[in-house]
């Protein structure tokens, strides 16, 4: 996200007990605190009921040679257009995890070569809706980029996932299913179809899906199957993922039907996965070989209009010939009549 006078760098979400960011000027690491909740955790993961309270902490280690001054805050999480999980910026008002996690120490100074633990609390509202929520705890350092005359916000954080207890209702929907057919490079018999749809997490539990696509003509003739080139990411409740799947070598049969089958997968608090019943969506489209139709129409037109044109041309030639002959006869008669009239006057 770019601001008027500052540039904000993306936040790497730590997937190991401690890690460096990819930039050279980030000299600190973050990890989860070791306590009753565990040691060397890869991230913050909680299963809490509405109204629950919990204490935890983040450890910041300065690997540099100078003290580092960091801002610390909690933020909501979301799935980016690339399928990765990211955290909202500090200026964005949190509504979920970023609001429930409270970091009393908003600023921390970490001496060179030292570590500092930053405690935080989690308070789940009593009226929180059951389901999965994503967010994280972020450390941030704003540095000036003299060459570009802007401020750059370097962020490093750890993801926090909270499952609020209650009635869990995983649900996947296939929205806006459609199909196009482009005719291909030689659009006479076969072409490529594209199936469009959105995987929509309509439940309250994070899930992913294994989806496949098929395109066929009337009565299922010429069915061609295809799978997306990449796996769908984990979608938070309410999120969607756009799919545009290319299906090659689909016959031009006038009308085509696309079908999508998606099997959602849910991961529980223990890490085990469950595959739910598949969801099916369909749509109808057109696969008309327009160039071939043009050729056929031209052939039909030639077959119907050709003989008529030939007859008309012959008749016109015959009429022209008759007119020429009649003109020649009239001219000959006129030339014959002139001398005869002259001879009559002389007698």
TrEMBL record:
Residues 36-137 form the WxL Interacting Protein peptidoglycan binding domain. The chain crosses the membrane at residues 290-310. It comes from the Bacteria. InterPro entries: WxLIP_PGBD. Residues 1-21 form the signal peptide. It holds the Pfam family WxLIP_PGBD. Keywords: Membrane, Signal, Transmembrane, Transmembrane helix. This is WxL Interacting Protein peptidoglycan binding domain-containing protein. It comes from Microbacterium testaceum.
